[in-house]
Amino acid sequence: MIYTSTRGEAPDLGFCDVVLAGLAQDGGLYLPTSWPTVSTDEMRRWQSLSYADLATEVLLHFVGDEIDRDTLNRMAHAAYAQFEHPAVAPLVQLEDRLWLMELFHGPTLAFKDFALLMLGQLFEHVLSKRQEHRVIVGATSGDTGSAAIEAVRGLEHVTLFMLHPRGRVSDVQRRQMTTVHDANIHNLSIDGDFDDCQALVKAMFNDAAFRSEMGLSAVNSINWARIASQVVYYFRAALTLGGPDKPVSFAVPSGNFGNVFAGWVARQMGLPIEQFVVGSNHNDILARFLTSGDMVAEAVQPSLSPSMDIQVSSNFERLLFEANGRDAAAVREAMSGFAGNGAFSVSSDTFAKISEHFSGASLSDEATLAEMASLFSRTGYLIDPHSAIGVAAARQCRHSGDTPMVALATAHPAKFPDAAHQATAQSATLPERVRHILTAEERVEPVTAQLEAVQAHIRRMRAGQA
Ligand SMILES: *Cc1c(COP(=O)(O)O)cnc(C)c1O
Q1: CB-based contacts of 422: which residues, under 8 Å, 6+ apart?
Q2: What value, to the nearest 5°, has the Cα angle with vertex 180 and ends 162 and 138?
Q3: What is the structure's pLDDT at 310?
Q4: Which partner from 128, 251, 268, 346 sits 20 to 30 angstroms from 289, CA to CA?
Q5: How far apart are CA 292 and CA 289, in angstroms?
Q6: CATH T-level assignment (fold) for domain 91-108+224-424
Q7: So which residues are the catalytic ones?
Q8: Atom of ligand 1 nearest to the CA of 257
Q9: Beta carbons within 8 Å of 318's beta carbon, 6+ residues apart
Q10: Which pLDDT score is estimated for 15?
């Protein structure tokens, strides 16, 4: 399988090179040159597979012949054995025609474990085969960081530098990162917001000399292997609720657009999906785009759902490329407009193609708390603020009352205990297996939000470790 950049000016690469590269050299994002398709019969055979075996089958379509089935299957079992629930991604019915898919049974209690534990396996496999070392840099608004840390801690061929915005991640999220003391893990607290952190990571990748000096790789949601791994649970949910013979719809609380884009990929592969509902908090660049066709960044305002406090939805570039008929020049133009003025618009044609499948709604913090409270009082189900946004957006935007709607529950409520308490007066307690982080010693490396300062820090720490 060959991959191409959305900006059309980077070399085409195979799967393993795309995994290591993360971002393409031209600043674009990699996509397969053509979408693999799965027949209805093959999907029916997938209905009875375990989660890890299903992941193997889905991923094989993207790996091509670069990793054999048995090796991939061993990696999938190693990744998904770390989930506490036997179904890995269980479905819970909330009300008539509305299900919740719980994606928080992994080690860091959020859905990013699905992609990152698999990505850690892939990195180790490819790097040990090639006898190479990589420095991974990433930016997190919360959940990516701890999931990446869990995925690569203790690996021999990887050193990880994770940037987080100081004071803008919850205590639990911060402690999940800073209480990991493996020598290959560095937590950098940056005096800025998430978009500053993400801009620093992008700038490091765009610095060709630094990039090759350090052997930089990314595990942010731009990495293709993360998208590919997330495709799996869309199949799991749909095949459980009547697919491939009946359509389902999905509601996804989204920031970077990575999660919901994975659903769109499942649809490209042939899975019947009727509608994607995207939920945002008051940082609602995606919801505004989906009603207007204009992508306009505003200042980020902290919310009760911090993992979606984002005004730059990196993975949207992939959908833009597709909806434009794979016109890389048009993507370059839109992205340079966005980099320059924080805005771009799409043609009415492109917008029509996108709105055919995607709708969006945004929720204020008050509306988020109200959804959490009403769900709890009606059903006794305690939901986290991100997932509550997906559920409420689903109710607002669903086209058809007949098609089953699956709202993705992206985090365990105990990761956001203040919101849970405010909404329901319940204290959401951390599962026993992660409670030790509340008292463990924290280790953080504070750095100013300047490219030179961050690069110097990374050079120094890497030299000290080597
Ligand atoms: C990361 C995250 C999101 C947003 O996911 P994207 O892929 O950026 O759209 C939503 N909810 C939680 C809990 C998250 O950690």
Answers
A1: 369
A2: 10
A3: 84
A4: 268
A5: 5
A6: Rossmann fold (3.40.50)
A7: 112
A8: 9
A9: 6, 29, 31, 227, 257, 261
A10: 98
425: left (phi over 0), alpha (psi -120 to 50) or beta: left
pTM of the model as a whole: 0.92
Does the Cβ of 410 fall within 6 Å of ligand 1? yes
Pocket-testing residue among 104, 143, 222, 416, ligand 1, by greatest number of atoms within 8 A of Cβ: 143
Q: What is the pLDDT of residue 466?
A: 52
Which residue type occupies 380? G
Residue (of 419, 371, 338) closest to 171 by Cα position = 419
Does the beta carbon of 28 sit less than 6 angstroms from any atom of ligand 1? no
Judge whether 418 and 175 are in contact, CB under 8 Å: no
- State how far the Cα of 184 lies from the Cα of 181, in Å rounded to an integer: 8
Partners of 279 in the β-ladder: 253, 361
Quick check: CB of 254 below 6 Å from ligand 1?
yes
What is the enclosing helix (H) or strand (E) of 101?
strand 98-102
How many angstroms separate the alpha carbon of residue 90 from the centre of ligand 1? 18
Q: Which token pair is 247?
A: 């359509």
**Sign (positive or negative) of CA dihedral 343, 365, 415, 172:** positive
Ligand 1: which atom is nearest the Cα of residue 410?
Answer: 13
Pocket test for ligand 1, best of 149, 231, 254 (most atoms within 8 A of CB): 254
> What pLDDT, on the 0 to 100 scale, is given for residue 312?
84
Residues of the chain with pLDDT under 50: none
**pLDDT at position 346:** 94
Rounded CA separation 19/126 (Å): 9
Q: Confirm or reject: Cβ of 112 under 6 Å from ligand 1.
A: yes
**The predicted structure's pLDDT at residue 290:** 94
Report whether residue 221 contacts ligand 1, using a CB cutoff of 6 Å: yes
Contact 140, 150 (CB under 8 A): no
First to last CA, the chain: 35
Cα–Cα distance between 164 and 177 in angstroms, integer? 10
Residue nearest to atom 5 of ligand 1 (CA): 254
